[in-house]
Amino acid sequence: MHPQLTLCTFVPSESLLKSLSNFLSSERFVVHTTDSEPEFFALVEEHRQYLDCLIFQDNGSLPPMINHLYEQGILLPVVIFLKESEALTTFVNTSYQSDEENITNGALPGNFKYLFHSAEVQVPTSRSPEITNLIDQAIARFLYLSPFCSIPHKFVNVDESTELTQRNFLMHQQRRLSEKLQERLGYLGVYYKRNPQLFLRHLPSAEQQKFLENLKLEYCHILLKYFSTDSNLNQKIDRLVEQAFFADISISRIVEIHMELIDEFSKQLKLEGRNESILLDYRLTLIDVIAHLGEMYRRSIPREF
Q1: pLDDT at position 90, please?
Q2: What CATH number does residue 23 fall under?
Q3: By the 8 A CB rule, do 60 and 14 touch?
Q4: Residue 146 phi, psi (nearest 5)
Q5: Is there a single domain that holds both residue 245 and residue 137?
Q6: Mean pLDDT value of segment 135-154
């Protein structure tokens, strides 16, 4: 059985909710509906790792709700239904909705004003019968969204650690959605969508240095916890591998980082008069990370049918 797409809706209008429910009643979707903000946040938190798309009705309360999602580090595909009067002044057309370059670079055309992120789909409520296509469109846009996409800062107040959580969550969701779509649709054309402008070699030198320092720090944490009972270790490895993949980091660079850290550990052990042979066991860490990264690169290569 093909995997279903999991949706969460915040739609205060009973008529709009009824219309959407009619069109989302197929076996393709699992839908969690609510018109209550506390219940919506509870649903999002409960299904956080499995949600594929959010559906909002803009009744004037979205900015603080979106602010709360930002503070939780959550970015997901989203369809937003606007009031008819607002929709008339919003830039929505087919050419923009399929413009991957604008989405990736965060370059919004005309007077488009987004509420959640630059890959969202905004439509009038009259287009509710098109909801299945709109969901597909929102997910397709989301797959091209840059981890460094801009957000409406006037509504949010997040620190650097929260922004890092957002980027990691975004990359994880993009990877998970790509795999789910590939399995559901039965073809290999919707896998990993990477923005070449974010490849390490294309970043300014200062950003390259900062990225590599952060990557080395995360790898160091993995080494230190590798033989512990840390239940989050696999998630940490996945996060590091995703960052390396989207930055187009080579496996040889990961090996270099590993050797640099092992050399530093070795010097410290010698200063403490301890046996450094234990460091040989950490070759398993390197093999683990390389296997994950190699698999991501392998699966990103288009295959012949």
Answers
A1: 44
A2: 3.40.50.2300
A3: no
A4: -70, 140
A5: no
A6: 69
